[in-house]
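Lesson 9: reading folded outputs for more than one chain in a single document. The general rule is that every protein is listed as its sequence immediately followed by its structure tokens, and records are never interleaved. Here is the first one.
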Amino acid sequence: MGAIAANPVLQRAIRVPPAYLVFAVLLITLWVTKPQLMNVNVMGIFIRQVAPLGILVLGQLLVMRVRSIDLSGAGVLLVVNYMISSGIMGDVPAIAYIAMALSVGLAVGLVNGYLVGRRRVSAVIATLAVTVILTGIIQFLASGKPPGDMPGYFNDIYNTKIWIVPTPVAFWLLLTVLMSLFLSRFVFGRFIAAIGENPTASHFSGVPVERTVIASHILASVIASVAALVQSASVAVGSIRLGLEMPIDAVAATILGGVIFGRGDGGVWGPFFGVMCFALLFVVMTSFGVPDPGKQIARGLIILLAAIFYGLSSSEK
């Protein structure tokens, strides 16, 4: 570690989000071994599959910038998916489902924000407990069985394109641009950056630390509800196990993208490419015929890489 601290070049290198390197390696591997897959339509299919994760990451990077974390996304996904696919709401228009999803995200965000921001409960424990509670409720209501199918228009919209870009990917890109502008152009973004640098100094400088942490958790859960709509449209059926692994993948992609607890070296686009790494990894693994257990191991290695990067970066902070 001393060699890194003494070398300014290595110091700058360690602050470059590893997502860019991993993405380049995976892209080159695919280009060399399976060039026929380097096709806009083919890649669009695979990238579309990670769009819900990419949206979820936008919320995760918010809370991680204020030195927190949100593992309740899986619970939000399950609740939204069940409410739509179970028919409990009856025959209602799409706007009613969207309002319901946003309301679920808002309610969960308020609980998370209160527990973490106001009561100072550990973010890991609080948000994980919320997911466990929501999962238990949905499994009780569903009696352990998948609830049913999604309305057909959800999957129809999911499979559309805007020019050559799949609609979910275009939507994800739009939200990423808006988040980048939100964090760079608005006062709230400066509050988040200040809290990430030093919460104590921010408090004495007049930054509303508590309110900012609460607002970050609320926004993260609302964004998770949007991801839930996209994810539900992608699977087109109800599930009592939908997206249980997504919050961990979101944390890994965020850290790979250079957004570490309190630091945001990767901005918004670092985590974006962190998610793209998962998309390319799936393409590479599939093209080589790697079975699901192998894909799980590869995902685990990426998460481990993210943890190692976080340790190195933290030690040099």
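And here is the second record, again sequence then tokens.
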Amino acid sequence: MRLGEILPGTGAFAVVQRNYRVWRKLLVPSMLGNFGDPLLYLLALGYGLGHFVGRMDGVPYITFIASGIVASSVMNTASFEGLYSAFTRMSAQRTYAAMLATPLRVSDILAGEVLWCAVKGLISAVAIMIVASFFGAIQGPWIFLAPPVILLAGLSFGGLALVMTALARSYDFFMYYFTLVITPMFLFCGVFYPIHSLPPFAQHLAQVLPLTHVVALLRPLLTGHLPHAAFYHIGVLWLYTLTAYVGAWRLLGRRLLR
């Protein structure tokens, strides 16, 4: 593996631009899908369940859950883009094959897709943050630090999703990833309740999952505090991002160039 082969060039931005132009034509339905479900969770659980829960970790439950919903929306949006949309471009539309007929390399295509996943995650998360702020569920002086964290989270989840896409033979394959990876993270990584309420073995398992570290960074930032052990959480997310990128590059290269 040569470093020059795996490092992307400026062509990655051309891939992002191409995806943006396509997405722009479907802006309204895409936005509805990106933050419709998180908004329903915020309203139903934040107000409905929050009426019975009251406060959690010293804040109203709607404030507690809002930051978790922002984090999970990044995961879901970036994962969906890296799975279903990317697989469509790779397999059904054969867009990647057309790109490889240009000066673009596999690393350019991959990096462009990962960046686009991160951008889509940021758009979805910011939309939720705007809505949640109207309910007073997000506030504080550190909100401006959230977008870089969201972008890093989108890179992590987008890279992991593209590993699955490079392995997939059909859309049905993605149900394994959602059932075995996405859903457990959604339920056990601190979106709805503190991780310390889990049994010890589950707490240790949760610490291995990337969504735990996204929540650990975003929840303080969106409630007016600086996160503890921020560099540790950021380091874990970068480790996921780089490892997933290398793995996806190897797998995608074998599939596209065989």
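What the second record shows: The chain has one domain: 8-257.
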